Amino acid sequence: MVSIENLKTSNSFCILPFVHQEKQFNNIHNICCYENQKQTDDFTQNSFEAFNSKKMNDLRHKMLQNKFPVECNGCYDKEKLGLRSARQIETAIWLKDLQALPKVENNILKFINLEKINPISYDLRFSNTCSLKCRMCNSGSSSAINAEYAKINNLWPSKFWFFGNSRINHDIPIDEKIEKVYLAGGEPLLESYNYDFLLKLSNVNPNANVLINTSLNNLDEKLLTIFNKLNNLTFVISIDGVGPLNDYIRHGSNWETIIKNIKLVSNHELMFSTTVSMYNIFNIVDLLKFTQENYPDANHGINIVNDVEELFIENTPMEMRPKIIQELYEALNWAPNNSATGIMNVLKLLEINNFDPNKFTNFIKYTKILDTVRHESILDVQPKYKKYFTE
Description:
The protein has helices at residues 4-8, 16-19, 47-51, 54-64, 73-80, 86-95, 101-112, 143-152, 192-204, 221-227, 244-249, 255-264, 284-294, 321-331, 337-350, 357-374, 386-389, and strands spanning 20-23, 29-30, 121-125, 133-134, 180-184, 209-214, 232-238, 250-251, 269-276, 299-304. The protein is an alpha/beta fold. The protein has 2 domains: 4-118, no CATH class; 123-389, TIM Barrel, CATH 3.20.20.
């Protein structure tokens, strides 16, 4: 018999393959959103078949035998560097959730008994519809970026890739068995399929744990009405700086609108999510102070950009790192635990000699192209880079 206590301390086990499915708008089913690893044996499989595919069954068996499936190397590699991975974070959250634990244990037991299982958690992406052009994002997650990249593809074809936008109304069983739903995009508050889904869910299972990852730039009365029918709703609000810096990184965003809309949804649970990149590496402490002073009850997750390599924080010049490192260590004295985990991950990457001048050159190239196209200047919001952008 598998012990939940043993799974908590396993070096290979992750809860997500046993409970979770990410459904992309191109009808691809992923194990999770962190590494974009497919669940399916082939692309003809539907949602249920993908969750019970040979690939998934093999992966689960390996984890229960304390083996390390290659599909999850992204997390394992981070742990080898001393970073706290999504595998560790997600597993800890699920296994200490007393409400969800019976469903979790049931799925694990059914799998061990060779029975087919259903997800109890979904990450739903109905489309990439989005009005923002965040600099650490890509065409796959923003229709606005996709349209822009189609126009500037000739400037850097391998970087500014684009594709035909697609959209899907995911067909999943909406019932009381659903424990958790995470809605993202694109911008979920712009996609009408999210509204339709939440309306159905509120009628069938209003106690489901719903998280909406949003820039909170778009809000109307229709949305507010449906939100108030959900009993366990959390807004995961993406902000990457205070004021103009946030609006520069997340082009199309309006800081004043975000602050106004936070007040409108403050009767629900609030979380903040920050992606640390080359643009805001100097401002993590300022942003944490802002959320702590204004929203002291809200968690604030600190994540590291892992998509656009030109913005990886490893590209930070070595001579700029000591001051950043000092400020982050000082922040650990007062930062909440959930933020401290992210800060430690940032520190571990800044404290090793991993700077590549060629990648820093690409950071400058990437930034200058977008600055020109968007009629912006990095030096207006991040003057610390003046030396590198005026030489």
